[in-house]
Amino acid sequence: MLLTISLMSYAQTNLGTDAIYINMTVGQSFSQNFIGSGNLDNSYSLSGTLPSGISLSTVAAGPPSTGNHEMTLSGTPTAAGSYTFNINVTATNASAVSNYTSTLVVTVASAVPSSNDVSYSVAQNSANNILAANTSGDVTSINILTRPTHGTSSISGTNIVYTPAANFYGQDQIVYTATGPGGTSSAASISINVNPTAPSVNPVSTTVNANSSNTITPTIVGTATSLSIARAPSSGRATVNGLSIDYTPNNGFTGTDVIVINATGPGGTS
User: Closest Cα partner for 88 from 138, 39, 151, 43?
Assistant: First the structure.
């Protein structure tokens, strides 16, 4: 009695001593039936190691193979690689036992990685913010397709390093792809919300003439929309003029005077 094993979806190929070559992809479900020919019931045994996530089982074959059994190779592979193993087919009746061995060569390819949209918030005037790309699958590198409009970006491993432009706050965006052994993903975006921070006012010292009127412009770090006087000068008069201070010393005064101010912006008050 001659036994052959046929891969059903391959148009009933009689394999003889030829190997079966099967392709799978990591993360994608796979199921394929094999069957020994003839009208005797077949049993199947494995010699070798299956890909991780793949198992072998037997099920009763439907018509016209009544009384026979099929072998099912199924599952979802979890790791890329190449695997070679033997399937031993045995058919038995009252007078004889027949055996047949077929070799299966399986190649499990890496899946194309996926990249997904993701959002982050960073502070105004911050630097070197690490933004992790939102990817899945086997990723070896990422690529920036569209750089941010209001800052700078660079790649560090599979992360993006982002620094907003000085004093900028608002929305920014980076478009990227992920690449791995399985190919390159479709494009995805990183949305960046740059939150304003409270401005700060650097101390400033200036010299003015006695009996003069002066406009003093403080040095403000960050974004300010207004100034307020927290402590008025003791030897003169001060008023707010936009983002400057108008100061007039008292008549005849000479010496040191002090004004304390606050700056207010979208991020709060200094």
Answer: 43
User: How confident is the model over 177-226, as pLDDT tens digits?
Assistant: 999 999 999 999 999 999 999 999 999 899 999 999 999 999 998 899 99
Gap between the Cα atoms of 207 and 44, Å rounded: 98
Q: What is the pTM of this model?
A: 0.70
CA–centroid distance for 200 within its chain: 36
- Torsion angle defined by CA atoms of residues 200, 206, 211 and 212, in that order, rounded to the nearest 10 degrees: -70
Q: Pseudo-torsion of CA 185, 139, 51, 78, nearest 10°?
A: -80
pLDDT at position 81 is 93
Q: Is the pLDDT of residue 159 over 60?
A: yes
Angle at 145 between CA 143 and CA 151, to 5 degrees: 100
The CA-CA-CA angle for residues 198, 203, 206, to 5°, reads 140
> Domains of the chain: which residue ranges?
20-109, 114-195, 200-269
- CATH superfamily for 114-195 is Immunoglobulins (2.60.40.10)
Q: Which tokens is 29 given?
A: 């479900």
> What rounded mean pLDDT belongs to the chain?
86
The CATH code of the domain at 20-109 is: 2.60.40.10
